[in-house]
């Protein structure tokens, strides 16, 4: 991998980290506002706000470390790791909110 590809890839990973943060904030707040989510499910949503952008930043750190040390593990496939985590998160939120919305329900009414 050339230095130019590394710099462009790292820049795009930082941009993707910002996108992931906003993606998680808006999707998690929408899910919590329209569905009753409690316990470990809510904890996973809250942790995703930090985990997903951190995955992109860790990828950048790994790529720079591999480049400096001339490692054989330096490859563009590392960029797929944060994308895969985002897809897993999207599937999780979709499955979590698949049930009926509690947005229009009256308290005590069934």
Summarize the structure.
The chain has 110 residues and is mostly helical. The chain is built from 3 helices and no strands.
Biggest sheet, in brief?
A: none
The amount of helix comes to over 70%
Strand residue percentage = under 5%
Low-confidence stretches: none
Number of helical runs?
3
Give the N-terminus to C-terminus distance in angstroms: 60 Å
Assembly context of the chains: single chain
User: Which H/E pattern describes the elements?
Assistant: HHH
Description:
The chain is mainly alpha-helical and 110 residues long. It is 71% helix and 0% strand. The protein is built from three helices and no strands. The protein has helices at residues 3-34, 40-68, 80-96. Helix 1 (3-34) packs antiparallel against helix 2. The longest helix has 32 residues, at 3-34. It is elongated and about 60 Å long. The model has no long low-confidence stretch (mean pLDDT 89).
Secondary structure elements and pairings:
Layout: H1 3-34, H2 40-68, H3 80-96
Highlighted features:
mainly alpha, 110 residues, single chain
């Amino acid at each position: 991998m050339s230095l130019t590809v590394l710099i462009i890839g790292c820049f795009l990973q930082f941009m993707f980290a910002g996108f992931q943060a906003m993606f998680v904030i808006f999707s998690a707040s929408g899910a919590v506002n329209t569905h009753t989510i409690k316990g470990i499910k809510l904890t996973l949503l809250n942790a995703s706000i930090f985990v997903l952008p951190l995955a992109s930043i860790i990828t950048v750190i790994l790529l720079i470390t591999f480049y400096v040390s001339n490692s054989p593990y330096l490859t563009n496939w590392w960029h797929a790791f944060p994308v895969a985590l985002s897809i897993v998160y999207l599937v999780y939120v979709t499955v979590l909110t698949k049930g009926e919305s509690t947005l229009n329900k009256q308290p005590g009414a069934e």
